[in-house]
Amino acid sequence: MGKSKVTIKEIADKAGVSIATVSHVINRTRYVRPELVDKIEKIIVETGYQNKIADKERKLLVGRESTIVAVIPNIESTIYRDMVAYVEQLVSVQGYQFLVAITDNDFKEETQVLAGLLVNKKVAGIIHAPVSDVATNYTKLIQSGVPFVCVERNILGSGIDSVEFRDREAIFKGADYLLASGHKNVLFFRESTDSTTRDERTKGFLSALRKYNINTNDANIVDVTLENGEDDCMLVIQKALRRYRPTAVLAGGNRITLYLMKTLRDMGIDCPGEISVVGFGDESWSELTYPPLTIIRRDVKGLSTKAVGMLFEKINTGAVISHDCYADVELVVRKSTKMLDNGPFGDKAAAPDSVVLTKEEKQRLKAGHFRVAISFHYTGTSWAELHEKGICEELEQFGIDVVSVMDAHFDSELQNAQLDGIRLQKPDAVIAIPADDSRTREKFQELSKVSKLVFISNVPDGMSKNSYVSCVSVNESENGTNTGRMLGEYCKENKKKKAGFIIHGAAFYGTRVRDNAAERIIKDSYPDIDIVTIRSFGEISNAYQVARDVITANPEIEAMYVSWDRPALLVIKALKELGREDVAVFTTDLDHGIARCMEEGIVKGLSTQRPYEQGRAAAAVVAKSLVSEEQLPKYVGVQPYQVEPKQLRLAWKEIFHESMPDRVR
User: Which pLDDT band, with edges at 50, 70 and 90, does 278 fall under?
Assistant: First the structure.
């Protein structure tokens, strides 16, 4: 980096101080220790930044009304730090000097700062994040005639210009997402500061509760006083988590988000396994945490640009802006949240690690010489191979033998015949994926009388809860929601409006839940996207012709949802033959073929099961059932994994437990 490109932030980083301290040294606006001044000035000379200062000063206005001042509570919060950087750039381009005044969120300090600015003839305008929202506290400012614009916070009263975030909408989005994901016990941490921002965020949270018919008198809201310091804030958060025992938490600010994540770490609470978290994510680290944080992200650059534009309009024309002005907020969904799933009989999903074997139970398993059979609806895919690998490796550590692995090739009659063969083998337990929800019921019922049954993905229609041990499945509702949301975000970002759905036509519980969830998220959250057509296939091989028919009849389609990877590959084949590789495909389950298509660019996103983990979970349930009378969960849910092209290699390692080949087959 050339010396001419050095920024004030780099100067601050080299000196180990804040941007505000460097600004005070350059502009002589506040006392700074002499040794620190010497250090900063030396760095300025070494980096050549003094040339930039000189060039800037030559271009700046001088004399009366030549300075713009930002009056803000602190420089530690990302929003104010970033805002200062954006405002300085915008102001300097206009030829004004730029200063920053810190109030420490203290009204007396703020009063003194404003009093000094109002008698300073060089001050042309003020960007102000007020400590209070009471207009009478700012009578002198309002009557002074000095142009000012409030940012992020507002002063209640007429004729006061402001640029704010839609804080009510922002918190509503976060709370609505958690509530729609099945969380009923949601805890909201908010800043204790008395301000319009706090009030608006609270209204957003309560509004979301009302949407889901939750009594707002029972709202779980906890105030966090940031001025008391990190340790006190974390103690407040810790006590609240223990008192309310939420399944999900919504943080109402950047620093609260940081303290919350630290508290969860210190308490050993798994996110999102035990608690889902939606935070404020103006902080750059939010994408780098494990797991990456689902956030409410605010457009600070947009806020700064609008505020400076409004201020200069007031300076140049004296006009008061009559309309409300807001900067954008968005919900960015990552991996710190999960949907709460229910099984075929409405049972809430238990986590895989909730099934734990004691030392004595493990010894009994190894002495018991137990035998297990596996009945797949189809094999020959990485999905099935990983399930089998997970099952066999988990059973092997307990000394349990796998006596047979059957492949029904999606043929219910063939699976019925295979189940008769398995019954003759007299295994102690059977792990199965039904090929059909109805046609295999009778055979599975017969088998349940002589062997323990654990199902993967779904339970045949009509089977009672007492006839099987448990069902282990990916959270299909979340799987479909993830895929639908990725499609929606792609269309929103690329201004696409026409989508098509190719779904599984068979009455298969798992795919039905997944497909419905994908459709629902598009209709609920992306009203600008038109689902042009929804077509179904029964046999996987039919997906190719369905895709040709859909695109031929609806050439305007720009994005496509397909139930899972195998039919998706046939849909992609049809698209390529029709010369429509411009249609973005979204699907579920990661495999070699889909990975290749993602590298080629036609698959833009997918949500995948974790078949290895699902296999191990099914095996653990079987093992526990063979030696324990304990009531096991009727439904065990495994969280899906969301994959975008830039994350493909990491996702491959997470799902396949091996590095992705340089060139996928």
Answer: very high
Distance in angstroms (rounded) separating the CA atoms of residues 422 and 448: 12
Q: Which helix (H) or strand (E) holds 127?
A: strand 123-128
pLDDT of residue 478 exceeding 80, the answer is yes
Distance (Å, rounded) from C-alpha 438 to C-alpha 429?
21
pLDDT 10s digits, 28-49: 655 677 788 889 889 988 888 8
- CA angle (539, 544, 546) in 5-degree steps: 80
Write the CA distances from 664 to 502, 559, 564, integer angstroms. Answer: 25, 24, 19
pLDDT in tens, 510-534: 888 899 999 999 998 898 999 999 9
By the 8 A CB rule, do 257 and 293 touch?
Answer: yes
Query: pTM (2 decimals)?
Result: 0.66
CB of 504 within 8 A of CB of 512? yes
How many Å apart are CA 408 and CA 415, to the nearest integer? 5
583 touches 557 (CB < 8 A): yes
Distance spanning both ends of the chain, measured CA to CA: 41
Q: How far apart are CA 196 and CA 192, in angstroms?
A: 12
Burial code (b: 16+ CB inside 10 Å, e: under 16) for 294-307 equals bbbbbbbebbbbbb
Neighbours of 657 (CB within 10 A): 12
d(CA 539, CA 377): 13
The residues near 53 (Cβ < 8 Å, ≥ 6 apart) are: 26, 44
